[in-house]
């Protein structure tokens, strides 16, 4: 055997290494920064149990235990607590009626329940597909949300250490869950063959079982009947059209020092990370629609503020946009619940009402509206982009870089 071939650790060496890893984590947990952590003793006890199991496991069973050992999960919790710095409790149990859950990490300021998921995006998807309730992350988080409503409604955050299918993350986000982790596209080689179109369609559907009637919550206005799209469709916000036609997003268009400070900030962002290519990629293979009122408004903006090339791009873009008639009501569905928010314009209400009516996702840079909605636990299907103003007319008064 060549001297360059690295020796494979024996099972006993792996046992010793794993025990030392758990002991090191226990030592970290004993640090003063963790001393005020409620329920720390429970976690220490569970990790001590892991050490004992590793020590006592006969060689025949040790291989399996090295794989199924909970140490990686405990280590992830410790690492997260160490990073965030404001954790108040760990591994806490909560119960509502017959539903019992365990919350991995809790913070009080702000009030957040955190779940840490170590499983791979592939494993999470398979468990969801096969209906394994004990491993189905959607069902687990649904239970967290159900129980949380009896404990001052904390924000629920789920940290996916090894990624999550984009459609699963978006479903959780629509129902008020804060998702942290890499979003994995369904076309990823590791996920090929692990999903089907019915599953993706189900993930994209609204699930009424998530919602609980609240006596004081504003009522949503009825959503007019509209045929479901037969091809992939995206709803454009005014901000999306502005980005698609702006000179700022064209080659060299951001290489100016403008007189307006706000435009300079957008230009700096554009130089650092061009925005248009990603939007065009997301639009590939999709039909484009707009609220009729929003379309008329952006037409006015381009006509007034746009330069010659920006107007040409707009004229070409509109050939691909279907205008959707607006309903009689200014706002429908969950959008109507936001009528009391003064900062929301009629155009914004029309844009997102259009999305609800047509059951489509909206490309938007309207972070303010989404934040207002989030504060009321209302979430829309969106592709969030960066805002880009029209700049062609302003180039004449700008200094080239």
From TrEMBL:
Residues 18-207 form the DUF5614 domain. Residues 206-225 are annotated as: Disordered. Residues 234-399 form the DUF1308 domain. Coiled coil: none annotated. Pfam families: DUF1308, DUF5614. It comes from the Eukaryota. InterPro entries: DUF1308, DUF5614. Belongs to the UPF0415 family. This is Uncharacterized protein.
